[in-house]
Amino acid sequence: MHPRRWAALGVIAISQLMVVLDATIVNIALPSARVDLGITEANQQWVITAYTLAFGGLLLLGGRIADYWGRKRTFMVGAIGFAAASAIGGLATTGPLLFGARALQGAFGALLAPASLALLTVLFTEARERAKAFAVYGAIAGGGSAVGLLLGGVLTEYASWRWCLLVNIPIALLALALAIPLVPESKAHGDTSYDVPGAVVVTLGLTSLVYGFTEAAKPAEGWDSPKTLAFIAAGIVLLIVFVLIERASKNPLLPLRIVLDRNRGGAYLTSMLVGAGLFGAFLFLTLFLQNVLGYTPLKAGFASLPVTVGVLISATVASNLLPRIGPKIPMMIGPVLAAIGMISLRFIDVDTAFWTHLMPAQVLLGLGLGFTFVPLSSLALVGVPEHDAGAASAALNATQQIGGSLGTALLNTIATSAIAAYVAANLVAGQDPGPVALKAQVDGYADAFTWAAGLILLAGIITAIFVKVDKADLPTGEAAVHVG
Questions:
Q1: Which of 191, 307, 428, 464 keeps 20 to 30 A from 287, CA to CA?
Q2: Are residues 95 and 213 in the same domain?
Q3: Same domain, 363 and 225
Q4: Whole-angstrom distance, CA of residue 10 vs CA of residue 12
Q5: pLDDT digits (tens, 9 = 90+) for 458-473
Q6: Is this model's pTM higher than 0.70 or not?
Q7: Do 243 and 132 share a domain, yes or no?
């Protein structure tokens, strides 16, 4: 085992937190950025979607680059590029420049994230140590989004929305400076040729699918719009073509043996569904706190902290349980707890209390996420040979990001439809529209929370059906891979 593995874990944790929180840190800053740069309401979604599209679409290629080119080298290039893209976004003077910078952030994040998880796989080879390392990673995966909301609130309130991007520069440079002496290099051996056709097709397919779902969320388009249907259909066709390419390729971008293993396949489906519910929940919780309860950006950020507290508690418990009872039981408990928390949020109103309603619901949500993400991170890499470590970890990251993008679009469409229906049914001519509009938002957000709970519960059912791994199947020092 590598002597500096725990120090290297700290470096990996810093970089992973930066990548995860960047998916939500701009949520609270969005209203300020929109006004400052003259971005229309129809286009403001691209500040978020440009990041998740590039990140989710390029993750598989990023995983293979990490495997073949060297995980430390890929990690360092990812950190430098992420810092540069953040600088461009933070100094942006137009909306399109900001959108482009966010896409560039996503592209370099797609190098950084799979390199990080693959490094964990080769650094920690003893079962108990690996469980603790994945507990840190799982806690960041589950709680990073909430940290992003808090940090976004603080920076927007006391500095500027621009610092929600510029803050990445010192974080990335710190991770880079520490990685040089602390993180060892490792890479795959054997056939290291790139599956370029597969990379191009899967990136286009995922992008088309997510774009189609994003279009469906627009009131002017909707689910039955020819544009929406065309992009979704094209995405599905391209993903089918990708599977055919992978079957025929000698050295595929995503070896189908990784996905077709029932335990990993179950883990990836769970990751996608939990990601869909989680990203949507954070978006609508933020909107509810600011648009309905009238919280300031800072107060809204702090009001999101209970999720992080719940994640930290359950991640610690899960890491101790994992070597004793295996991943299946925590992964079944997690979605149930998270769904209960989400169902609690379904009963919000225009004057919902924080301490007696929102806080307990968020703690439950956080507890559920910690119990889900810690074993999920470990399970997705059980039995993966070192040659495929980057591809397997990239697939895990990609499922969460794609799930988040699709889930946000789906839940946004559900919420928008519910809001419009409520207004149409309850607004009387000559009446002050303010109170009705407020209640309509609550109705829409409540519908979104209900569907999010359903998605997360479905993840628990999939775990029960597919996951058969017990503690005896978790890697030991003899079976695990080593740093080369």
A1: 428
A2: no
A3: no
A4: 5
A5: 999 999 999 887 665 6
A6: yes
A7: no
